[in-house]
Amino acid sequence: MLRSIVRISRVCQSLGSLPYVQTQLGHPAVRTMSTLPWPFNSAPRDFSLPNSSWSSEMTRLYEHYNSQCEVETEDGEKQRGPWRRLPSYNRSLKYAKGGVYLSKFVQSKARLFTRNIKTAGAAFEYVMFINKEEQRSVCIFQAGHLLEGPPGHVHGGAIATMIDSVTGTHATYLSGPVMTANLNINYRSPIPLGSTVLLESCMDKKEGRKTFISCKVTSADSSKLHTEATALFLSVSVSHLLGM
Amino acid sequence: MLRSIVRISRVCQSLGSLPYVQTQLGHPAVRTMSTLPWPFNSAPRDFSLPNSSWSSEMTRLYEHYNSQCEVETEDGEKQRGPWRRLPSYNRSLKYAKGGVYLSKFVQSKARLFTRNIKTAGAAFEYVMFINKEEQRSVCIFQAGHLLEGPPGHVHGGAIATMIDSVTGTHATYLSGPVMTANLNINYRSPIPLGSTVLLESCMDKKEGRKTFISCKVTSADSSKLHTEATALFLSVSVSHLLGM
């Protein structure tokens, strides 16, 4: 078990962040390492890379931020740029006990909520970038046809899911393992199914164990505000990650 | 189109509620008639009825509330009880235009977010009951293995999705067509994957176009509080439902 913890810590350090971490604590909702590679699979699929379902707008935005992950110096040398792309996988850690009620069957088939549809383009297509210096993140999100709530528009719960995922990953990047304690979401205008939107999050403040993040969901050209939210996360120890 | 509106109104009246309604308005997030039967299909599947994936706890709670939908008088006559079961379908209305960016392809394949997984038990299994006299509702929710966030636990976004669905349906029952304007969610303790929980909502107040609902998510025996939330909905006209 100790080796597992060490391995997790190393992977986290190599990513430069702890994409979010949750367990059973008897208090605020827990976060998991949703973007951590599944350690028993030598070649996990990274869902944050372009596929044929991506719209031209989604691809253009991806290329815009991806090009700033590596920049050239005046001497022509390549070096790390201001942005970093975060990978995204379809499972979180299996180390944790996963709740007293959880059967082995359920645990073995579990899948990250945003990655539970295998068909490309049908549900959540997204990629997230982090700007360490400015302590902000951006997520490019294309909403598939299986996310419907209002006729022709994205379900409020699917929007909340993306806000939780993005702000939680961002908070973990800033503060290490965290749990979601509060999400406060104001819905301003509906998002048409099939469209590409931007989720931009920034850190408001840190106070002890608390990390406060705010998030805006806008149209791809940032001209229209769809949703805005604040989120509060509580830091937890690594042992919580393992359900110990 | 007028005939469509009349038909929709009749269906809504026959249900005794307008399970939630949303369109594109350029302001707060819209709600749809998520539990309205698809009018072009003569035998839509009602997903709120028991299936083989339901746990014994889910089935027991269903039978408890379902038995109170019809009661016997002292004379042995049957009459409507205090509770009503609400059906749940996998599509919302197709009448609405569905957003300026929406292609016919996307629109034709769209599916209600909570019903986007066909395998029974894999994702959202739920049934909702309304108590008209007490103006409260209860939803029995079994969280499948594809809703994972934290290792072995339900994703915060999936919990938000159920809260949005339940409070939105409740608000529509009380106030007619509404849109979600705000969700404020406090996560108190994580929900193990595979477990059955209760979502209980009650109306706090109505002020003009605003309906305020609060919601608690607890363990099946109500002993443990998992999540609590408040939600604000704005009433809209029926024409908004059609994207006019």
From TrEMBL, chains A, B:
Question: Which residues are listed as membrane-spanning?
Answer: none
| Gene Ontology cellular component annotations, sorted alphabetically | mitochondrial inner membrane; mitochondrial intermembrane space; ruffle membrane
- Write down the membrane topology: Peripheral membrane protein
Domain spans labelled Thioesterase: 152-222
Q: Which UniProt keywords apply?
A: Apoptosis, Cell membrane, Cell projection, Cytoplasm, Fatty acid metabolism, Hydrolase, Lipid metabolism, Membrane, Mitochondrion, Mitochondrion inner membrane, Transit peptide
Q: What is its main location?
A: membrane
Localization recorded for this chain is: Cell projection, Ruffle membrane; Cytoplasm; Mitochondrion inner membrane; Mitochondrion intermembrane space
Gene Ontology biological process terms in this record: apoptotic process; fatty acid metabolic process
User: Is Metal-binding included in the keywords of this UniProt record?
Assistant: no
Q: Which GO terms describe its molecular function?
A: hydrolase activity
Concerning Pfam families, the annotation shows: 4HBT
Please give the catalytic activity noted in the UniProt record.
(9Z)-octadecenoyl-CoA + H2O = (9Z)-octadecenoate + CoA + H(+); octanoyl-CoA + H2O = octanoate + CoA + H(+); (5Z,8Z,11Z,14Z)-eicosatetraenoyl-CoA + H2O = (5Z,8Z,11Z,14Z)-eicosatetraenoate + CoA + H(+); decanoyl-CoA + H2O = decanoate + CoA + H(+)
| Enzyme Commission numbers on file | 3.1.2.2
Asked if the Swiss-Prot or TrEMBL record annotates the protein with the keyword Transcription, the reply is no
Q: Which family does it belong to?
A: Belongs to the THEM4/THEM5 thioesterase family.
Official protein name in the record: Acyl-coenzyme A thioesterase THEM4
Q: What is the organism field in this record?
A: Scomber scombrus
